[in-house]
Design a protein that fits this description.
5-stranded mixed β-sheet, Glutaredoxin, single chain
Length: 162
C-alpha cells in the first residue's frame, strides 16, 4: 500500500518536464496481463485485449486534475479511432470506490471501458508510478508508448500502434 500511496502523491509533484516522457514499461516490451475488477466487482483480465487489437490504457483517478486535462484528447482520439482501438481506463483505488468511479465515468461520459484496480495488480504489472499514465499497446501486444501528465500526444501514440 505504501507504493500505491507514493504513486498517488507523485502526481502532485511531477514537474512539467516529466510529462509525456517514457514512464511505466519500456517501449518494445510485452504488455502484461493483470486481473482488475469490473465496476460491478467481477474479476476481469485486461490481458484478454492484448495481442488482439491496439489498446490505449489510462491509469486514472476521479480526483486527478491531470487525468481531467486528458479527457478532451481521449474523447477526440476515441471519436477518430474508437472502431480500431480499445480504450480502457484503469481506476486506481486510492480514495475511490467502484461506485464513485462508475458515477464519475457516467457523468463525464468517459470514452473508456472502465475497470477498478482494487488490489493494484495492473498498476504493479505496468510499473505505474502516478495517475494520468497512458500506455499504448499495438495489436502484437507490444508497448509502443508510455507517458504521464495532462498533455500527451495520444493520437501520435495511437498511430504507432496501428
Amino acid at each position: 500500500m505504501t507504493r500505491t500511496l507514493s504513486a498517488a502523491l507523485a502526481v502532485c509533484f511531477l514537474s512539467p518536464a516529466l510529462a509525456a516522457q517514457g514512464v511505466s514499461l519500456d517501449v518494445g516490451s510485452k504488455a502484461p496481463s493483470a486481473i482488475v475488477q469490473t465496476l460491478d466487482g467481477k474479476p476481469f483480465d485486461i490481458g484478454s485485449y492484448i495481442g488482439k487489437t491496439p489498446v490505449v490504457l489510462e491509469f486514472w483517478a476521479t480526483w486527478c486534475s491531470l487525468c481531467k486535462d486528458l479527457e478532451p484528447e481521449l474523447r477526440a482520439a476515441h471519436a477518430k479511432y474508437g472502431k480500431q482501438v480499445k480504450f480502457v481506463g484503469i481506476a486506481v483505488s486510492i480514495n475511490q470506490t467502484p461506485q464513485r468511479v462508475k458515477l464519475y465515468a457516467a457523468k463525464h461520459k468517459l470514452p473508456l471501458e472502465v475497470y477498478f484496480d482494487k488490489k493494484g495488480n495492473a498498476s504493479t504489472a505496468y510499473d505505474v508510478i502516478a495517475t494520468s499514465t497512458i500506455v499504448v499497446i499495438d495489436r502484437k501486444g507490444l508497448v509502443v508508448y508510455t507517458g504521464q501528465g495532462g498533455d500527451q500526444e495520444i493520437e501520435a501514440a495511437i498511430k504507432k500502434a496501428l
